[in-house]
Amino acid sequence: MKKHRALWVIIIVIVVLAAAAAGVWFWLQSRLDETQQAHQAVYAKYQTMTAAVDQVSLTVTEDGSPIGSYDMQTLGLRDGLLARVSAQFSALDRMTDEQFAALPLQDRLDWAKRDLGATDRVTPDLGQLELSAVLADLQSVKRTAPEDAYIDLVDGVYTVHDAVAGDELNESAVQAGLQQAASGLAVTADGPADASFELTSVDCYQKPSVTTDTLRDTPDSLFRTALAELEVKVDFNKDSEFLPHGEETLTSHDLASILDLDADGKVTIDEKVLAETISKWATKYNQYDAPFIFDSWVKGLTQIDFVTCDYLIDAQSVMEQIRAQLLTMESGEVDADAACYDKNGKPFSLGDSYVEVDFDNQQMTFIKDGRLIVNTNIVSGALNGHQTPTGLYEAHGREHDVWLKGDDYLVFVKYWVSVVGDLVGLHDASWRSNFGASFYVYGGSHGCVNTPEEAMVLIWNLIEDGTPVLMHGQNKWYEPANGNPYETKNPVRGTTSDVKVEPGTLVLTPGSSRIEIHADDVVAPKIETDTDTDTAAADASAANPKPVS
Hints:
The protein is α+β, with helices and mostly antiparallel strands. It has three domains: about 30-145 and about 170-205, no CATH class; about 220-340, Ubiquitin-like (UB roll), CATH 3.10.20; about 355-545, L,D-transpeptidase catalytic domain-like (Beta Barrel). About 30% of the residues lie in helices and about 25% in strands. A hairpin with a 3-residue loop joins strand 13 and strand 14 (about 300-310).
């Protein structure tokens, strides 16, 4: 009986122990399952937060318009933020489920005992913030600099201009704003925590440094300062060696009684006082019954004694020039040149189309519509009583293929232009091989202007009746510089060596005759003739030759 009782005790103990063991096993298994689930949650959190590092962005706008969205890599925060996130998790936390399950039982149970309260929000280290990409995008926007308030003088009126706001960046304020906005960047257990920055939420633009309230000057102060230093000089006949010339000055003292500033900032001029001053000056520099000053192609400015006029200062023009200068409130100079007027008070000149015959240099120049057409050597009348007459004439008739008859000559010319009645004209001279120099002294014409045919054909075709013909010079014997009567003079301008040869210019062989034709796009009409017609015309002209000198 005792044996049976002991056996039952043993059986009961075994059963109890088995039950206890089973209970312990079931408890341990349950604990391990909980630990595995807890690790799975921590690991998932770790994965979410590390993945969020590359998803966090800072969005920048300007007045509601997008500038750009910038990730942690661009902002220089990725590696630091990733390290911060990783630091919140232990090495066991960062294991995969498989790696954690393979750990010894005790390691897993010990892991479960630790504080599992890892932070749910991690922010970057803003000390590493790099804003260059953001600033570059902001600067790529076309911007306008602010404008300071200022006062200017336009057309004699001082005007105050208000300051104008621009949109150039106040970079320090922008950077501070970006720094503040970046403090909202983070990764959380739920994913990325983004941030945004609206540029205009801070004092983002540069301000004008001067406003109307801070202007140091006023229209009146600027006017008074300028007036104290103002001076206007007037040069009368500055470049003329033939007319009275000199300089007159309106000093600041003189101008103090002429200039003033009204309430609207407008510079006013006492034109009566100014006109009186100019009138006195003009009287001083006017010249009456003076030789006409002609701009000769060869000689430059030359006095023509047989043409006289009154050289008068245009007081009204001087007035307008001075007035324009005064309205700038700046010192300056004004040129006042007397102009030629005839006895009827009308301006006098040869106009922009004329022929000049220069006896001294034995050259003829044809200007048409302000352009040089021909400049050529010529031969004028001989000094034995056949001198070509000086004077101002007009072209008045052309003839083609005529015979010219005198007391001791009969010659045929192709191109004739009448100048002095029907006695003196311009014409070709096929019998001559040399023009210019001193040839007129030893073998001059009977009064006409002998011209190379190449030049004469162009003159003949382009000259119009009424074209002024000015013939001037000493018309007397002169001695060439080296005693060689066949040496061409070297005038100031008009020689082959001194004149630029432009395209289309015809220059004959030096030593015979010189012609410079600057016809440009002017093409002389071709005179169509045939041998029979020419012969007939020549015969007819020979039968009734033109009696010229």
